[in-house]
TrEMBL record:
<dbReference type="GO" id="GO:0005524">
    <property type="term" value="F:ATP binding"/>
</dbReference>
<dbReference type="InterPro" id="IPR003439">
    <property type="entry name" value="ABC_transporter-like_ATP-bd"/>
</dbReference>
<dbReference type="InterPro" id="IPR017871">
    <property type="entry name" value="ABC_transporter-like_CS"/>
</dbReference>
<feature type="domain" description="ABC transporter">
    <location>
        <begin position="58"/>
        <end position="284"/>
    </location>
</feature>
<comment type="similarity">
    <text>Belongs to the ABC transporter superfamily.</text>
</comment>
<keyword id="KW-0547">Nucleotide-binding</keyword>
<dbReference type="InterPro" id="IPR027417">
    <property type="entry name" value="P-loop_NTPase"/>
</dbReference>
<dbReference type="InterPro" id="IPR003593">
    <property type="entry name" value="AAA+_ATPase"/>
</dbReference>
<protein>
    <submittedName>
        <fullName>ABC transporter ATP-binding protein</fullName>
    </submittedName>
</protein>
<keyword id="KW-0067">ATP-binding</keyword>
<dbReference type="Pfam" id="PF00005">
    <property type="entry name" value="ABC_tran"/>
</dbReference>
<keyword id="KW-0813">Transport</keyword>
<dbReference type="GO" id="GO:0016887">
    <property type="term" value="F:ATP hydrolysis activity"/>
</dbReference>
């Protein structure tokens, strides 16, 4: 096998999405240009992004993808500005992997447009992917080579200087283990080495797909802190994760998918700052349902027997209490709490209500309050 062919094996992984076939995954080192000796053009700001303080590094517009009769992604649109960290969430089969594969050029969408650093990724994939680094699923390295040697092979393909290898090893906390064979690394260390490989060429956009998957608690904390450090340094990141607490701690924005469609997106602070969740237990749930139908600001989120999950704006709490008194609705139990990313996820994904173990109405009450005088439990 030629030197180039051997090197490319580093970026080759088995993709479950591709039905067990081996694919050339050009993510760890960004998209390989196919020509050795090129300069690190990813260090430069593209002309499309120059002159603006806040420009979209990634734009996904109306992307749709079908596999036969199965609609994997339906008219998905979102953008990622410079310096933002976007968490992409969704149940299994929601379309997250398909979106990532279309961005990386591994899957061609049936419709829609993807622009990376202002470059049309479908018309000029090679140029667009120069600005991308990615870690998807489990990284593959030569186990008999050291961490530094593995990075050196990738650096040769993009003419990255040795000094940059040292920089990224220090960045991910592997400087002291750089001369040890990767075969001796823990899973968490290999994940950090993969992130080092992904940022080796200073990409504008870093894509991380389940970076903490399979890690022990210590490994999860290490990778999470690394991502937070990258974000603090202004790295634009698209993070796909099933760990909601991780997304809430690391990300500035969130995109929630369900059955191939966007069901919620925006800044996390904005999405969580609106309504308060209220749990109401009453012997007359049908009257509360009627009340929701007549009251514009009162929303019924879910119902489980005589327990109702309501969304009440924080500015309307007293009005809600007065409404219960006026309508003479008996209250057996009442509690409220602020919105969390977990509850937002459960409320916006259509399958959440079918999971009895995770149903929001079966969760413990976080804060008790009495709104209706004279009505005891």
């Amino acid at each position: 096998m030629s030197f180039t062919g051997s090197c490319l094996r580093i970026g080759t992984i088995r993709s479950s999405f591709c039905h067990g076939r081996w694919v050339r995954w050009r993510c760890l080192a960004g998209a390989w240009s196919g020509r050795r000796g090129e300069t690190m053009r990813s260090r430069e700001t593209p002309a499309a992004l120059q002159g603006t303080a806040q420009s979209a590094v990634l734009e996904v517009q109306g992307v749709t993808k079908r596999y036969g009769s199965f609609l994997a992604v339906a008219d998905v649109s979102f953008s990622l500005e410079r310096g933002q960290v976007l968490g992409m969430l969704g149940p299994n089969g929601a379309g997250k992997t398909t979106i990532i594969c279309t961005i990386l050029g591994l899957v061609a969408p049936d419709a829609g447009q993807i622009r990376i650093a202002g470059i049309d990724a479908r018309q000029d994939a090679r140029e667009a992917l120069r600005h991308v680094g990615a870690l998807v699923e489990s990284p593959t390295f030569y186990p008999y080579l050291t961490g530094r040697e593995n990075l050196r092979i990738l650096a040769l393909l993009r003419n990255v200087p040795e000094m940059r290898i040292t920089e990224v090893l220090e960045l991910v906390g592997l400087a002291e283990r750089a001369e040890q064979r990767v075969g001796t690394y823990s899973l968490g260390m290999r994940q950090r080495l993969a992130i080092a490989a992904a940022v080796l060429h200073c990409p504008l956009l870093l894509i991380l797909d389940e970076p903490t998957n399979g890690l022990d608690p210590h490994g999860i904390v290490e990778v999470r802190e690394l991502i937070r450090g990258l974000a603090a340094n202004g790295q634009t990141i698209l993070l796909c994760s099933h760990v909601l607490a991780e997304v809430q701690q690391v990300c500035s924005h969130v995109l929630i998918l369900d059955r191939g469609r966007v069901v919620a997106q925006g800044a996390i602070d904005t999405l969580l700052a609106g309504d308060h969740a209220v749990f109401l237990r009453t012997p007359v749930p049908e009257r509360v349902r009627a009340l929701c139908a007549m009251t514009p600001w009162l929303r019924l989120l879910a119902e489980d027997g005589n327990v109702l999950h309501l969304a009440v704006p924080s500015t309307c709490e007293e009005e809600f209490a007065q409404l219960l008194l006026t309508e003479q609705i008996p209250v057996l139990e009442l509690s409220r709490h602020s919105q969390t990313l977990e509850r937002l996820f459960l409320e916006t994904t259509s399958r959440s209500g079918k999971r009895s173990g995770n149903h929001p109405l079966r969760r413990g009450r976080l804060e008790w309050w009495r709104l209706v005088k004279g009505q005891e439990k």
